[in-house]
């Protein structure tokens, strides 16, 4: 039954909240009908906070909500703890859609062990699609920052590029691509969202819990070259980047060649840039390699005066960020 603008009916909301039940001694007040907030115990004095909305219609919107907020916290050296979520349902949403959204929230909160502890729900007049907005809290495990990066440190790329761009292009252009490359190829590219996956939870937590890391940065819009430029600018340092060592998935190369775009400038959620000492970088690459997680040293940090340079196919040039993501050349 389509719902009218306003509050979610009490019986429906109570049923939906049952899907978010969590058991933790640190959650003193959790999601419950008639309660407008949450109370939790904090063991570590250092917390990291982030917020990200999902404004597009997609059956994967809850996963995107989790992944985007988780990746932001990982990049701050924090292990995700709790999620607060505002659910603004579109006018005419059905009870089934509401329950499915809560079902997915419950599923992913358990998968990543990030309980949904509070939030807000309503049916909003004028909305044509549901908007999800998350506020996530994490416990700082490793204090990372651009200021900690030193000359002589190396730059490690974990997981290839461009996971998200590959998935989006194959979903938006699936009919065209299926005619050229076949259905199995398109399905493989579409599934990049989950495998190799845009969420950095597992590999990110492993890194911050087990290695001495200076700084982290997750590439998003503008691809890995833009992420490298942004993070080095924040550090106030220069670098030499070996562009030929940047990990690019074969599927991404095929799509990039077909559409004549640069995969290094394609939206790259799912990859991670790590700044650390060389010996630690070698240990990271070796350990992740044993788990079949791609990792490669792709550059070295230098003095600011040296500039930010990238070598590609024997050509050395200044690294410049993309003002527009390469995906906009396709869609």
From TrEMBL:
Residues 150-309 form the PurM-like C-terminal domain. InterPro entries: HypE, PurM-like_C_dom, PurM-like_C_sf, PurM-like_N, PurM-like_N_sf. PANTHER family: HYDROGENASE EXPRESSION_FORMATION PROTEIN HYPE, HYDROGENASE ISOENZYMES FORMATION PROTEIN HYPE. Residues 36-140 form the PurM-like N-terminal domain. Belongs to the HypE family. It comes from candidate division WOR-3 bacterium. GO terms for biological process: protein maturation. This is Hydrogenase expression/formation protein.
